[in-house]
Amino acid sequence: MKKIPDENGFDFDVIVCGGGPSGVASAIAAARRGMRTLLVERYGFCGGMATAGLVNPWSGHEYPGAHSVKKGSIIGGIFKEVSTLLAEGGGFGSRLTTYAFDDEYLKGVYDRMLAEAGVIVRFHSYLSGARVERGYIKSVHVLSKNGTTAFSARTFIDCSGDGDLAALAGCKFDIGRPEDNLTQAMTTSFRMANVDKEAMYRCETHREARALVEPYFQKALASGELHYPYRNFVHFYDYPRAGVLHFNMTRVSEASGLSPEDLSRAEMEGRRQAFLLAGWLIKNVPCFSHAHLEKVACQVGVRETRHIHGLYTITQQDIVDGRKFEDGVARSTYFIDIHNPKGAQDVHQAVGGRGAVRGGFAPPPGDWYEVPFRCLVTRDCSNLVVPCRALSATHEASAAVRVMATMHALGEAAGIASSEAVRTGGDVVGIPGKWVRAQMPWMETAPEYGAPWNSASLMMGAAEGTATR
Ligand SMILES: Cc1cc2nc3c(=O)[nH]c(=O)nc-3n(C[C@H](O)[C@H](O)[C@H](O)COP(=O)(O)OP(=O)(O)OC[C@H]3O[C@@H](n4cnc5c(N)ncnc54)[C@H](O)[C@@H]3O)c2cc1C
């Protein structure tokens, strides 16, 4: 086997693997603290699910709730900066979905913030291996057109979503739910353009707008005109562009996001469902009669794979109790959103409720829960943190904490802690989570109602009747 050249000494202070919401925030936080920071990303842009997966809108930070008219946020820091830049560029907030964002614009926002922070970004580079000595990562192997290169650092942040680096480094993990290791269903997101949104814009929220389309969908399912056993209610969001709606309605279950065979099947099946549904909408629902399928996500959306064993594992009870922690580094109002590993009825869905969340799956109304820093710290590697979707959580809790606003906050905490480890010459496992929390002052403040959180509502007042975003 060809030997991979390994750098001598520490080339970087911090290496971040994966440039999704958690990875971007991690890298920016570390670089701003003076760390020589490398971000490795397999695509040619950052954003992960938010861009490659076309996932929208931001969730997790909204207070008092996603569907109220007055919007607030319980997450500040880098997430707020990102949202403010999106809002300044007209890429944030739509009439019916306050936290929708323009994913093309987001790519530019992330590029700019990474460059300004001084992060060294290496796109088109795939993490493929790690050299580990006694629970300490020495270097990561990165595959590109030029072959495999090793990069070394003092500390590493796994933001691959799937916990790839942790797994390569020998950390223990679980996959999916305990009884059968099945993971949440995957979804290929897609967008419809040239939709006549006029009638929808007489509604207050996307929920009300969906109700306009729902009767057509239910009738078609009941009559057998549409064979669509994947999702049992209409699920779309408004998007900050004229005539565009974002759909989260395809489903591929019993597929593993770690298996290239399953992923290949999921990509093709997800696209098939997207084309099927878009064609049906165009033919049967009046406001779609001049619409077209504008865009299908360039990768199927994977909701769940590995859960790394961390110093603390967050549980369903923590979410439902709205539990706070001394070392809490993210707060969230997001519910336990389990897209059924088998079948169209979501696990959290009240029977017949078409999207309504049943008891025992959300924090108390008006309250939030926190995610402790210990969920990011692995038990098996002293210089690695995992602030991405693969953090230490049960199947149920993972379904709540995985959302993108939360991921920005956890990434920021990981960047702060890793920098402190480098600065003090120790390992990240030794950084007190309580100290990390203290570096994130918004963790202690009241929910914030100012811009950019209410930019869409402000827009509604300013531009009543127009569909310009
Ligand atoms: C269909 C779907 C709908 C969702 N809906 C919502 C929603 O409405 N609101 C919400 O807030 N959240 C939603 N989520 C959840 C959210 O999108 C993800 O949980 C979140 O993006 C996870 O962030 P992350 O940074 O951990 O990983 P990701 O966003 O997955 O980013 C991981 C990054 O790492 C890169 N990467 C992976 N492996 C490697 C490797 N080996 N080498 C190099 N690079 C690598 C990827 O290319 C990617 O850029 C949804 C998710 C899905 C799948």
Q: In terms of per-residue confidence, which ranges show pLDDT below 50 for 5 or more consecutive residues?
A: 457-469
CATH-defined superfamily of the largest domain: FAD/NAD(P)-binding domain
**What is the CATH topology classification name of the largest domain?**
FAD/NAD(P)-binding domain
CATH class of the largest domain: Alpha Beta
Number of strands: 17
Helix content: 25-40%
Judged by helices, strands and strand pairing, the structural class is alpha/beta
Total domains, how many? Answer: 2
Query: Which distinct ligands sit in these coordinates?
Result: flavin-adenine dinucleotide
Radius of gyration: 22 Å
Mean pLDDT, as a whole number? 92
Give the overall shape: globular
The biggest sheet amounts to: 7 strands, mixed
Distance from N terminus to C terminus (CA atoms, Å) equals 54 Å
**CATH structural architecture of the largest domain:** 3-Layer(bba) Sandwich
> How large is the share of residues in beta strands?
15-25%
Number of helices: 11
Order of helices and strands, N to C? EHEEEHHEEEEHEEHEEHEEHEEEHHHH
Brief overview:
By secondary structure, this protein is an alpha/beta fold. 29% of the residues lie in helices and 17% in strands.
Fold blueprint:
Elements (H helix, E strand, L loop, with lengths): L11 E6 L3 H12 L4 E4 L21 E2 L8 E2 L3 H12 L14 H15 L2 E3 L3 E8 L2 E9 L2 E12 L5 H5 L4 E3 L14 E4 L12 H18 L12 E3 L6 E3 L12 H25 L7 E5 L9 E3 L7 H5 L7 E5 L36 E4 L11 E2 L9 H7 L2 H21 L8 H6 L16 H8 L7
Parallel strand pairs: 1-2, 1-8, 2-5, 8-17
Antiparallel strand pairs: 3-4, 6-7, 7-8, 9-14, 10-12, 10-13, 11-12, 15-16
Helix pairs in contact: 1-3, 1-9
The structure holds flavin-adenine dinucleotide.
Flavin-adenine dinucleotide binds next to helix 1, strand 6 and helix 9.
Organism: Termitidicoccus mucosus
GO molecular function, one term: 4 iron, 4 sulfur cluster binding
Pfam families: FAD_oxidored
